[in-house]
Amino acid sequence: MATNNHCLEETNPVIVVIIPFPIHSHMNQVLQLSVLISSYNIPVHYAGSSIHNSQIRTRAHHLHEQLSRIQFHDFQIPPLSPDSSRFMFIHAMEHLRKPVALLLHELSKKAKRIIVIHDSLASSVVQDWTCIPNAEPYMFLPTTTFCVLSQIISQESGKYLTIPNELAHDDNFNYDPIEVPYVEGTVCKEISDFMDYQEQFAQNSVGILNNACRFVDGIFVDMLVKKLNKTIWPVGPLHQITSRNRKCYNSISGKDRWLLDWLDKQEPNSVLYISFGTTISMAHHDEQLQELATGLELSETKFIWVFRDADIEDPDFNGEKGELPKGFEERMRAKGIGMVVRDWAPQLEILEHKSTGGFLSHCGWNSCLESISCGVPIAAWPMHTDQPANALLITKVLKVGLNVKEWERRHEPVSSSTINKALRRLMGPDEGAEMRKRAQDLGAKVRNATADGGVSCLECDSFIAHITRQI
Q1: Which residue has the higher pLDDT, 310 or 290?
Q2: pTM of the entire structure?
Q3: Is 343 one of the catalytic residues?
């Protein structure tokens, strides 16, 4: 077992151990949660594979001071082999159970209570908590309660999410039944089986934390509490807490500053930010890539497009990676219309910038929540898992975005003409301006949620009071 930062505590009333799921969008959220909990002067241990822990620490370099309060446990896992899973994240989960169990046993001797917070997709890793009398497991939900309710309804062969009358207390809210997206078959069988396996252990959690706030999906939190009969603490947006004292230009390196310099020269709300996250590579969809670039050029929208390989290689992809149309990148740069970024980009700083007026996104929850908190409307292009439900929440419930790719037609390429029209609507002075106003109003509420006395701050206080209750 490899550790760093601190010696193990002698005796503590409570020690928190956090287990991430090893893809960036999940690790990022639980790392932010670790920082939040450690700010209450509670010892926090972050346990994962050495390769994934190193990756998240590198990308969170701006949190260096806060990370110094967290003890990382970097476990070595064997390399992929012909007999192992094709996916590194599944492989890691399969090899972390034993070292995590040993860590929990060791720490249990040094605290009166061990709080084990695990990602919903890392539930099997902590299953041995049952052998530790002073351990309590809590599940971290890296998406919305709306998404979980949608999944439950689909599993029960339902089609609509109906809001009970006793919860319908906001006159400005549309309480019509919501048709939930059908997502079966959007991931391969190996991943689907893995997710089902995790679900059986997730049911053992004492309570749930999730990275959202009541201004975003509070009514759905109440519905899920009734459904699961468990306490849920919506403590987000977590990125606001870790970046509260951050100055925009201080958190990015020199190689990225040119992007903000370029944004400084653009008109307010005139630039579209484009990113499909860390698990999706548009280069694997050559026909669609060509249509997207053409539609973007037709729309004459100024843009920053993050065009990079995904963190996770798709083992089923055997084709050649697509490239942008010949001359596209050079034309856009020469005209001053757009920038293509082929490396990591400072997404939050770009969304915070006054010149950014829209976000073309896959609707991963990290991206949605950052866009909401910055008051930037979303052009939704969901791909898989929780993304269709997130897109539905954004476009139909919160009404702070529009669909570019309709989920019902997910197997068809989106034409350049459709993309052109959608982007003109999003960035335009009519429908786009109305969405931007709603997004900005919601963003102001969400930003206040994590301030002292805000709804999410109070939720976190409540969780801390719960885990530190008298023993």
Answers
A1: 290
A2: 0.90
A3: no
